[in-house]
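Milestone 3.1: sequence recovery, worked example.
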């Protein structure tokens, strides 16, 4: 059972009881958004809500814990690998962002390019835009009922690999062609990598 299937399980039990997400939320003292997040596979109920949730759905707490246990046991190898990478998100973010900022500062001090002003201004702006666009796009995708967890895992892995490779290539090119090898993509690739990484961190 995947996280998404666990959400289906909760949804089916709620509908059998004739409860809306808002009604179930009122019983448990949470918002309908929290219920929606459980059913879309974005999160599990907290420990203190397990007993009230089981009672509200008309099942035993053992059944509810069993469903979650089965779900967590059946993570794919890809998902386990992604989770392992996400667990190092703090270190990876520091390394990635530090290298990009250092290369940006070196270009600021020593760069000699006709596009220097544009590159210096556009890099932080475009990097922030891409970071939030990619992160919230993935969050939106993960909440869509038709988006299976395996599809999201593949997309996350693809973006992480592509952006890591691109970021390393960009910084290598900057070193080889110092001080003029810096461009906007040096920051954007790092931003997209971090955006995907931080999204995956929330899925742990």
């Amino acid at each position: 059972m995947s996280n998404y299937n666990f959400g289906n399980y909760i949804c089916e039990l709620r509908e059998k009881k004739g409860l809306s997400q808002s009604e179930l939320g009122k019983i448990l003292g949470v918002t309908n958004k929290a219920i929606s997040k459980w059913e879309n596979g974005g999160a599990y109920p907290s420990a203190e809500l397990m007993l009230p949730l089981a009672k509200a759905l008309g099942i035993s707490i053992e059944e509810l814990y069993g469903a979650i246990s089965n779900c967590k046991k059946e993570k794919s190898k890809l998902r386990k690998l992604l989770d392992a990478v996400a667990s190092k998100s703090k270190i990876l973010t520091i390394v990635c962002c530090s290298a990009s900022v250092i290369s940006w500062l070196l270009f600021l001090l020593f760069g000699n390019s006709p596009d220097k002003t544009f590159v210096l201004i556009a890099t932080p702006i475009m990097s922030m835009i891409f970071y939030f666009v990619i992160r919230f796009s993935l969050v939106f995708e993960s909440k869509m009922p038709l988006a299976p967890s395996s599809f999201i895992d593949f997309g996350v892995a693809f973006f992480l690999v592509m952006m890591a490779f691109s970021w390393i290539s960009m910084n290598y090119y900057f070193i080889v062609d110092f001080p003029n090898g810096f461009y906007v993509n040096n920051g954007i690739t790092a931003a997209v990598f971090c955006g995907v990484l931080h999204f995956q961190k929330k899925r742990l």
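DSSP finds ten helices and no strands in the chain. Residues 170 and 185 are 7 Å apart (CA to CA).
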